[in-house]
Amino acid sequence: MIYNKKMIFCKYSLKKLNTFNINVNANKVIKVKNLIELCELWKKYKQKNRPCLILGEGSNILFLKNFYGLVIVNRIKGIYISESKKYWHLHINSGENWHKLVKFTIKNKIYGLENLALIPGCVGSAPIQNIGAYGSSIQDFCEYVDIINPINKNIKRINKKNCNFKYRDSIFKHNYKNYIIISIGLFLSKKWVPNLNYNDLKKLKHNIHITPKKIFNYICHIRKKKIPYHKIYGNAGSFFKNPIVSPNLGKKLLKIFSNMPFSLENNFFKLSAGWLINKCKFKGYIRKGVMVHSKQCLILLNRFNTSSGRDILNLAIKIYNSVGKKFGIWLEPEVKIIDNYGEIDPCIFFKKNTKF
């Protein structure tokens, strides 16, 4: 359908609903606290053939333009605990804040999520990206994901084995486009074993009095040093994924760059995107108010909170092309790119702007 732009009034600000602090508007913004209301709103707008977008906290979103439809802000909350002999079982509704969930588990002596502290966003977006940090990811604890078709209210439970979890990827990125994640199930062992294999955590192995709360506090400290608070400098955390390349390319690059950081995953090389960007001399680079963070080159900052989504995207494309030319590696963005009508496939968008 072709929309008459003159008839679409975008008067509801989204600036406080996206962590890039992009100053765009939507036709309508409504916060929902229950599933029935969410389904009714979605169905109403879809019957009018208007676009709808579900937002948690907007921590992985880049708005390019005003949104010509309804933005539903998910605030459907609830945490429910049960237990078996070996595990705690948590059923969490999708509108819960992820970091608050981690704090809740530690307060209630349910351990395991501490490595995932201070990851922004809501629970509903966690399985889509298969969020992860410091050697852990949600796939380590996921039991199931519940989704709903808001038109016919059909609910499906997707068990972990069918979620197709991979590095920053899952089945929810590719299938179930007409469904919305409404809750997730996690299982956490009652026998806690600290996960200290990540490089930044290895020095904690020598602490014989290590506790989940100490790991939680340490990771919060690290993340606060690395990632600027988004209300001061708009950002979405890591803009690009760390690339995983073939053994041949990995070995070839290692011969040229002997100090290149990497890890091996089934003989494939997982490289540091931040290191690649830094090698292209982007650290601290500023263009139209968008800055490559000097402490972590994977983070793009809306330095004065006045840049547009297009300004941020243009710098990301410049980085994408520079890394591609220098290393033969084409970075994949983590953030969702949203235009007037909804999400644009970021991979296709970047490939269209490739400069050889």
Characterize the overall form.
globular
CATH structural architecture of the largest domain: 2-Layer Sandwich
Low-confidence stretches: none
**What is the domain total for the residues?**
3
Biggest sheet layout = 5 strands, antiparallel
How many individual helices? Answer: 8
- Number of beta-strand segments: 20
Helix fraction, binned, reads: 10-25%
Radius of gyration, in angstroms, nearest whole number: 21 Å
End-to-end C-alpha gap: 35 Å
CATH topology of the largest domain: Uridine Diphospho-n-acetylenolpyruvylglucosamine Reductase, domain 3
Structural class assignment: alpha+beta
Secondary structure blueprint with pairings:
Layout lengths: L11 E2 L11 E8 L2 H13 L4 E4 L5 E3 L3 E8 L4 E5 L3 E7 L4 H10 L18 H4 L2 E2 L2 E2 L4 E8 L4 E6 L20 E10 L22 H15 L17 E2 L1 H10 L5 E4 L2 E4 L1 H7 L6 E2 L2 E3 L7 E3 L6 H19 L8 E3 L4 E2 L1 H7 L4
Parallel strand pairs: 2-5, 3-5, 4-19
Antiparallel strand pairs: 1-2, 6-7, 7-12, 8-9, 10-11, 10-12, 13-15, 14-15, 16-17, 17-18, 19-20
